[in-house]
Amino acid sequence: MQPRQELLDIWRATIRYSWRREQWHWGGRHGRNCISDAEQLLCILLPTFKVQAFAIDNPDRTGQEMIEALKALGGASEIPRKMIGVLLEYYRTYIDEAGTPTFAGGSYFATEQDDDPEPTEEQRGLDIVDAYAMAVTLSLATIGFAKFFRLTTRRPAVWEQIDELSRLASSRLTAAMVGLLRSFSVNVFDADSEYGVQLIRMVNQGQQPTREVVAGLRRSLTQTTASFREVLIGSGGMTDIDSPSQLFECGWSWSIVEKAPLVVLDDSEQIGEQRAGVAEDAPYLYFTVIALHAIEDLFSERTRAMGLLNQEQERLARALQLRFDLTRSYWATVATYGQAGRWPIEDVPWRTTDGQESDYFTLQVTSLAVMGLLQNRSNEAQLQRIGNVLIELANRGRMIRRPYSDDTALQLHHPGVRLELVGSENAGDAADPPRLSWYVPEFTPLLLYRIVAVAGLLIDIRERYAYLALADEVWEHLGLRRLQTGAGRNLWDDPGGAFPQLKRESFGEPSWLITERVVAALVQTATVLDRPPLHSDILSAHAVELLNEAEQLFDRELLRGNVRPLAMETKNVRASLRRAREVVRERPGTAAVLAANVLNILNDLAAGRSDSEGI
Questions:
Q1: CA distances for 70 relative to 17, 33, 38, 359, angstroms
Q2: What separation, in Å, do the N-terminal and C-terminal C-alpha atoms of the chain show?
Q3: Residue 166: which residues within 8 A CB-CB, separation 6 or more?
Q4: How far apart are CA 66 and CA 56, in angstroms?
């Protein structure tokens, strides 16, 4: 897998599909909505935001390969100007008449059965956490892009566009952060309730008495429970969970939870009216993970260094970071509960508290568990146990194993796992509206993302490259699922390309949901590969020994005045030894080669002198 080349290929395919007759062509497999359109834009902007080599905000520094991939937009100066216009079109589209940003799921909403009535207009207009999360990432990328491009252009008309775009993106970012604060949920239940029974069954891998499991789990969550008293803004504030017979779960519901309090802002007109919530006050794994990934972007080093948040947004980000820490701590505790033996997360598939089971839920919990393990500075062995779960999921998901006839595992890829959006049936005034569903077919790109992320955290070189080799296998599977024909060729997703059993359906238009997830996985891969190389203690010790010997022998030759035959190379030898000493800690292999080259030169000198003395 070569992330740089693959990302460039996706840029070419995205521009070929999207830029037609000097206009941006929106839509895709699911038509237009604020999420799909954001995913389409992130196929271009996510690499520019997170991988320095892909930056296009400074025409003088844009790489030639990037210009070539985006050449349909124009040259190095035209590319950012055209993208400013496209982004403005997006942000102007998804605001209502009062100027309030909108976050409706729109055409992504579905119903459970084909014969169910279509979602009502009120239902299609419901906010959803997916839209908030995409808005956070896209708006941060947009604000950064506009901020730095403004420094390189001198056209007043372009400045006006940039200023409007920055204002709209900042407003949408604030509104999305408020939406995330009001969608957070803490679901408290009795240990003997249906929720409690399901949770205990999942975590009780040692078959202990229920009372011991409840007491042990509560002890493990003591610090997390106490920290909920600090949740003061938005939903999910302190609930009575002091009873010894009560348990809880936390995370994000699918939308603003019912009766969620308003978030007080210094400038309430900035985001307009805060809508009433209808969502069930209970967390969903999918929406929890996607919210956490977006929140990570808010307090990333890049966001801080670029100064992308205003004072109000920094306050909201702190409130979201508190929820981030509580959520990852909770799920890491639950996923790895138990003193010995098998972890709950290793008992595949994961079972949610409402009784649903899926390998996809296991994959989501691995995301949460890794975040929590990093928070607790866990050891290498614990990360490898999570990695082993990912290997099993790759097998069970039929990405590195052949599927059998009528294999139910293929439903992970198409149509995907169906989530019931409880509370959506109460939206609007229509008689007997259907309960909405949300399909998530992202199993493969999300698995690729997680495998690469775990590989990047491992110190053991052999283990790391074993996981990167697994990532290559998953990537080969994804390669089979590119669209082969039409305007969307080389984009995703045609699962029938990898699974002939799914050839019954025709996949013509690109799925921006899957394509954006593929881009995110490639960006993650590029980030991991760009880190300094790992090395073993044995290699480091070997490099130091070679370098010490080379320096000592060279100094001895200088002392004896035996370097006249090397007069032309003495400068190069000194430079090699100096460079080897500089890099021996971070790149011991390079230092070893440099030292070995010097030793070879000195050996030739000594051998020549011996021959001459022998004569």
A1: 12, 24, 18, 38
A2: 58
A3: 142, 143, 146, 147
A4: 8
Amino acid at 609: R
- Domain span holding position 505: 3-188+249-426+439-529
Q: What is the pLDDT of residues 144-173, one digit of tens each?
A: 999 999 999 888 999 999 999 999 999 999
Q: How many angstroms separate the CA atoms of 11 and 44, rounded?
A: 6
Looking at the structure, do residues 511 and 592 belong to the same domain, yes or no?
Answer: no
From 127, 165, 176, select the one nearest 295 (Cα to Cα).
176
Give pLDDT tens digits for 5-34. 999 999 999 999 999 999 999 999 999 999
Neighbours of 543 (CB within 10 A): 25
Hey, is 355 helix, strand or coil? Answer: coil
User: How far apart are alpha carbons 106 and 467 in whole angstroms?
Assistant: 38
CA distances from 192 to 189, 199, 328, 342 (A): 8, 10, 25, 24
Asked if residue 281 lies in contact with residue 251, where contact means CB atoms within 8 angstroms, the answer is no
Query: C-alpha angle with apex 172: 297 to 418, nearest 5 degrees?
Result: 70
Tens digits of residue pLDDT in 233-260: 766 665 667 788 899 999 999 999 999 9
pLDDT per residue as tens digits for the range 66-118: 999 999 999 999 999 999 999 999 999 999 988 899 999 999 999 877 677 88
Cis geometry, peptide bond prior to residue 415 (ω within 30 degrees of 0): yes
Across 487-491, 524-528, 553-557, least confident range? 553-557
Give yes or no for residue 615 having a pLDDT over 50: no
Q: Residues of the chain with pLDDT > 90: what percent?
A: 65
Which structure tokens are listed for 222?
């003591």
Q: Indicate the residue among 529, 545, 580 that finishes a domain.
A: 529
**Both 503 and 547 in a single domain?**
no
Q: What is the dihedral of CA 177, 183, 184, 188, to 10 degrees?
A: 170
- Let me know whether 500 and 543 are in one domain: no
Identify whether residues 49 and 134 lie together within a single domain: yes
- Let me know whether 362 and 402 are in one domain: yes
Reduced to 3 states (helix: H, G, I; strand: E, B; else coil), residue 24 is strand
3-state percent breakdown (helix, strand, coil) of the chain, nearest 5: 60, 5, 35
* Mean pLDDT estimate for the chain: 90
The answer to whether residues 311 and 414 belong to one domain is yes
52, part of any domain: yes
Question: Are residues 278 and 335 both part of a single domain?
Answer: yes
Query: Residue 379 corresponds to which tokens in the numbers above?
Result: 């050891």
Question: Which uninterrupted H or E stretch holds 519?
Answer: helix 512-529
